[in-house]
Amino acid sequence: MSESKVLVDVNNLQKHFSKGKDMRGRDTAVLKAVDGVSFQIRQGETFGLVGESGSGKSTVGRCLLRLYDYTGGEVFFDGQPLGKLGEKGLKPFRRRIQSIFQDPYSSLNLSLNVLELISEPMKIHGIYKGEERKEAVAALLERVGLKREHLYRFPHEFSGGQRQRISIARALSVRPEFVVCDEPISALDVSVQAQVVNMLEDLQSEFGLTYLFIAHDLSMVRHISDRIGVMYGGRLVEVADSDELYDNPLHPYTKALLSSILETDPRKGSQRIRLEGYSGEREAAAQAMLREVSPGHYVALD
Amino acid sequence: MTKRLLSVEDLQVSFATRDGENQAVRGVSFHIDAGETVGIVGESGSGKSVTAKAIMSLIMPPGRITAGNIEFRGERLTGLSEKEWRSLRGNRIAMVFQDPMTSLNPVKKIGQQLTEVIRRHRGLNKEAAVAEAARMLLQVGIQNPEQRLKQYPHEFSGGMRQRVMIAMALSCQPELLIADEPTTALDATIQAQILDLFKELKENSDTAIALITHDLGVVAQVCTRVIVMYGGLIMEEGTVEDIFYRPRHPYTEGLLRSIPKRGGGSRERLIPIEGTPPDLLDPPPGCPFMERCPHAFARCSERPPVVELTPGHRSMCWLVESVQNQTAVHAEGGDSGE
């Protein structure tokens, strides 16, 4: 996999939000949600992004989707910079980069039926027409485990897992190359999570998709990701192959995070590393740059 | 010698909806002893939260308890007046909800809210109540409690608010604490801290905890006993070891299989439970898991009996019943039943 080309190249990405403005409209306080993040995602791989709420992981995802303008840095998709593009220049990328969000209850328009929901992106990007489009939607629907007779039903008639399947079909309707999955299974029941994860994996190998998988469920992230980046306070503190990261974490925050995974085995108590002591080191860690300590394993330590 | 704290007998709760009666809980019986930590596990719609609310007498119309009996220390809870409840709720039975954002009053300082509870339930004077509130905050791991008491809920993070809620629940030294998904909305590191708190509580006091969750990791780490709910019924019940090492219900087995294993090859394929939970507006008359069960056979369309495998380990499944009947011929004795 390491020979495949880099599809997404994030280069010193920064995204700051204004927390307050003075009377002249200048920022008085700035929240550095993402503060200099760099990583690459190769074609066909799944890159996992973990971290607690407020670490900036979702902001990175939204920057890659160009839902936000960047404060600094650049994101290259297939070699082309996205940051300076206007909406017109972005349109081809809007097709090639798709997204799946956490809450299938609020991310689908409740007044559209399944056929309209899934064919809407096709319409925007001019893919298929009329009867052909309907056939394509029906085929997609079957591909994600729903039935043709669901075409004319509305979102409220489906369970959470089924709605997430509709979101996935919608994202895939325009044949994207890269999908940002922001907590796609967090709102689903345990028994349904595995269904959706298996489906995402099948679709990946079938369509050659590349995923950015943002999540806080650490055991599921390990399962689905080839490589994982750990975010803390708007910075990437560690990046490694997923097994390497879990077996050999180097950054104190990664260690604390991994030690908080609950063993699903009552006889194995987890030896938890408390975070309290670490918060003082946070400033120092924020300054450290990612360094490669072993092939493919990067960590930000002094 | 264990003390029976709570016993629930054939509890049934339903909600009137436009489309008919939603039978959320359809005949649930279990008990909780003093000092125990019991996990109530199930997915959304399994009836676990409704059961908790029924115990606390918090079922509001259009919902109602249609049948069953709930006893607390031998005293009947069903049918108590709201006034009688007030001396019980918070005082002897306390509850912590999932969402700490909505359960605190946003326009009152944390200190006011805590001391109010302490003064009402413990009859302390103001200074003593403030000191007690500070002690409770410290106990749940909140530093600088004196300062913190003067702050409003919005100045606390989500994890801290949840700890305040737990402090509030514990400040009355309840005999039973019902926690409904207390860590679901929190980050992994904060979740671990809160669970440590529950573990300490288990070791240092006689308070029994009913922990409602869908997270099997939480159950494995904190609970002594587990109740597995599905489709408004208890599918299996037993000690943590029974449930995690000797599951005897296909649903429990499926749940345990569907979580990714730690350690082994990370890219191993997951084994999901196919299908979706039953519609409780029109619940199947037999086993609710029948449609998704890999072992289902004709008899599953009748409601299965609850079979006691070993003392305290019960499973509601025809499969277990048939195996049990065969072995019963060989090994007589070990009578079951409440």
UniProtKB/TrEMBL annotation, chain B:
Q: Where does it localize? A: Cell membrane
Q: Does the keyword Membrane apply?
A: yes
Q: Which residues form the ABC transporter domain?
A: 6-256
Keyword annotations from UniProtKB, A to Z: ATP-binding, Cell membrane, Membrane, Nucleotide-binding, Transport
| Mode of membrane association | Peripheral membrane protein
Q: By its UniProt entry, which InterPro entries does this protein fall under?
A: AAA+_ATPase (IPR003593), ABC_Ni/Peptide_Import (IPR050388), ABC_transporter-like_ATP-bd (IPR003439), ABC_transporter-like_CS (IPR017871), Oligopep_ABC_C (IPR013563), P-loop_NTPase (IPR027417)
Q: Which domain of life is it from?
A: Bacteria
GO MF, one term, reads: ATP binding
Q: Which CDD domains match?
A: ABC_NikE_OppD_transporters
Supply the SUPFAM superfamilies for this chain: P-loop containing nucleoside triphosphate hydrolases (SSF52540)
Output the PROSITE patterns linked to this UniProt entry: ABC_TRANSPORTER_1, ABC_TRANSPORTER_2
Family affiliation: Belongs to the ABC transporter superfamily.
Q: What is the protein name stated in its UniProt record? A: Peptide ABC transporter ATP-binding protein
